[in-house]
């Protein structure tokens, strides 16, 4: 380095000392004990290397650092450059609730860092203006206190002192209020209180009405597409403000994905209100580190470079190219394509071309801001999988994956080796499958104690069988149970299978004289995907359909979670049964000697109740008797062993038509005749409730001698005819 460059960049090098966390390294020569040379008191100072971009344009270099760290929205104007970002406090014991971070607008003048000073504006809607002024003044004091620090270093200092700025006394605010009446003051106070928590409005809304209208139409259409594709997932949710969306990420199991990102299952998608005029951003949940930050930055850059793609296309690209985005944070722009599938293919081809381009030029500097970092091509012998294997994996379906041999699975999933007992020699019986099995932090999963509910083939009685241990080819353990109703003997054999990300088969069950109906809470044994340690069984992990089970690895203390959304029982082949049970002989139907449509003997009357025209079927013994007394006499004649008290009869047989039906107190529902004889206690009409027979009516009852309207008309006609016959007509 030349002396002129060293003197001009000394101040800049000291300014970025806090950011890079690299101090001056001193080298001193330590003489051996055998020598008597005096120790040197002067240390050799090595000058920190300075990049070419930092020397040529320090302002753009510092802005680039802020862009890589916070991924802000940048706007360049004639007098300054503004960066809209969100600063999340890094202190784990931060006392204030800033879930969305500190909304900051950083203004960098054009003559910075020579003359101008950067300024900060806080835009949090839930924060009182007095505390916003405290943070803004605190940032100004940091700029004055550390004149040589970079923009990123100043923001880091603001993060460290943010609690001190917010806990200080609120800055006074002067409000100019017009002289109004008390009722108007009350209304104005209510209006101000309602506007204190207004939604966060973007600072750079410098767009025309036509642009905002088109952006709103496209934003609503893409959000509807996002909800239609991902709305069925339980992870998907939408915030009340309509800006933040929680989307699921079904990351495929691949060796190309970094280990720190294999546990990601969801992400927060931030869609601005003026999208696509402002790019969306994404925040990976459940993972931390440099890889996650690199993917978040790469996602936003790809959205800016491919603004014509839809949100669903960006999500698909993120899921399929998670490993590539973690390695290459600067994806190359591709040609805009309308469909989502073609968009994903275009992104993959662009990333492959970029990777090939970097491999063809090993040792080249890719980032001019960091010239000391050089990219070296990946050696070809490190690639363990060929191109044919990748194509076959891409074209294979889920059905083919489940049907692959267990030896292939054991060679690909890694971790704990599969025991011999998990390999089924013959696939027969009923296969237990868990479609949609969700494994998080688990390499393989196995059922160590199965509990099921079975139904007897003879009497259809349900029986619960618990703690069925798996058997293998050597032991061939059989479980024997007896039906509690018909004493039939059940035989159950369970052969366990290892479940992983590419297989949802839990094993095979062979049943004799019964059929499986449901799976009860059973014991599972997971294997940690981090350290390949088996969870002890017993106790194991008890799980059932629909529940999410969480446990901790006993070795590395990593979280292991699995969920069984659905259970299917698929019959692979009919298990051979040794002896088929004969069907139980049914009892012959009771012959009462009656015919439907004809009356019962003596119209159903008995010596005890002479005015009852029906028989009853008693629910206690399911036999037919005319009355309760006849029931007691008939049961007593059968013997003491069958003696029992009579219960209420719910069915009856009509004495007029001999049809059996549900009990009705007055009339038969089939023929409509009365099954009881009513006793007439009065000789009067009584509005139709008394007697209707004129022979039984009293003499004082008017209806006894009252004729009907039809009879009166006939009498009137006869009278007119008689009168006509007596009349004389002149000739």
Walk me through what this model shows.
The structure is a single chain. The protein is α+β, with helices and mostly antiparallel strands and 731 residues long. It has five domains: 43 residues, no CATH class; 116 residues, Ubiquitin Conjugating Enzyme (Roll), CATH 3.10.110; 152 residues, Ubiquitin Conjugating Enzyme, CATH 3.10.110; 152 residues, no CATH class; 62 residues, no CATH class. 28% of the residues lie in helices and 20% in strands. It contains 18 helices and 27 strands. It has a five-stranded antiparallel β-sheet, with no helix packed on it. Strands 13, 14, 18, 19 and 20 form a five-stranded antiparallel β-sheet that branches. Strand 26 and strand 27 form a beta hairpin. Helix 5 crosses helix 6. The N terminus is likely disordered.
